[in-house]
Amino acid sequence: MSQHPSTPPPFRPQDHPQTTTVLILGILGLAACGVLGPFAWSMGNKALREIDASNGQLGGRDTVIVGRILGMIATIILGVAVVSIVIVFGFAIYSASV
Question: How do the domains of the chain map onto residue ranges?
Answer without folding.
Answer: 15-97
